[in-house]
Write a structure and sequence with these properties.
The complex is a heterodimer.
Chain A lengths: L2 E5 L2 E3 L5 E8 L8 E6 L5 E7 L6 E3 L7 E6 L4 E6 L8 E7 L10 E5 L2
Parallel strand pairs in A: 2-10
Antiparallel strand pairs in A: 1-3, 3-8, 4-5, 4-9, 5-6, 7-8, 9-10
Chain B lengths: L3 E4 L2 E3 L6 E7 L12 E6 L6 E5 L3 E2 L7 E6 L2 E6 L8 E7 L6 E2 L3 E4 L1
Parallel strand pairs in B: 2-11
Antiparallel strand pairs in B: 1-3, 3-8, 4-5, 4-9, 5-6, 7-8, 9-10, 9-11
Classes of the chains: A mainly beta, B mainly beta.
Chain lengths: 115, 111
Amino acid sequence: EVQLVESGGGVVQPGGSLRLSCAVSGLTFSNHWMTWVRQAPGKGLECVANIKEDGSDKYILDSVKGRFTISRDNAKNSLSLHMDSLRAEDAAVYYCATGLDLWAWGQGTPVAVSS
Amino acid sequence: DVVMTQSPLSLPVTLGQPASISCKSSQSLVHSDGTTFLNWFQQRPGQSPRRLLYKVSNRDSGVPDRFSGSGSGTDFTLRISRVEAEDVGVYYCMQHKHWPRTFGQGTKVEI
C-alpha cells in the first residue's frame, strides 16, 4: 500500500520560512515524479511544484517562484518543499502526491502565516 | 495557464438518482499520441483528495462502477449513475497536459 506522510507545517510569521517533508513508502520512489499541491482554507486545489524522478527537472508555480524550492532524496524516499518569504496568501494545507497525475495523496500538513 | 471551468459549482442531489458534472478546458488536453490528460478527483469532507478517474474514463482501484467519465478535446463529464450518501463531497477535474497543472474550481455535491 502506498503511503505518503507530510510533516513540517505550522504557524509562521509573514516573511518567515518553513520546510515541509513528505515520507513515501509502498512504491519505488525514484521511479516517480512527485508533486506538492496546496489548498487554502475553504478554497480549491493548486499545484505548487513538481519534480522529476531524478530531480533533474522541476516546475514551480509562478506565484511562488524564487521563494519555494522543491527537492527530493531518493535514498531516503523523501520529498521536500522549502518555503521562504512566506505571505498570508501561502496559508494552506499542503499535500504531497505521486506522479504528475496525482494518483496517491498524503493527509496534508497545514501552514498558517500570521503575525 | 489552462483554465478549467466546472459547472455547476453546487449540485444538490437525491439519493438513488443520477448526477453529472461538466468540466471544460480552455485548451485541448489531447497529447500528440492521442492520450487525453484529464483526471477527476473526489474530496470528501475532512479528507484528502483522491483520484477517481484518469485519462477521462479509467476508474482507479476501488472506485465504484457508478462513477464514469466521458468527453474529448476540451469538454468532459463526470457522471454518477445512482448517488449514494458516501458520494457527498467536492469533485475536481484536473488537466495534466500543460504546465502548470490546473484544477477546476470544484463542484460541491450535497444531498
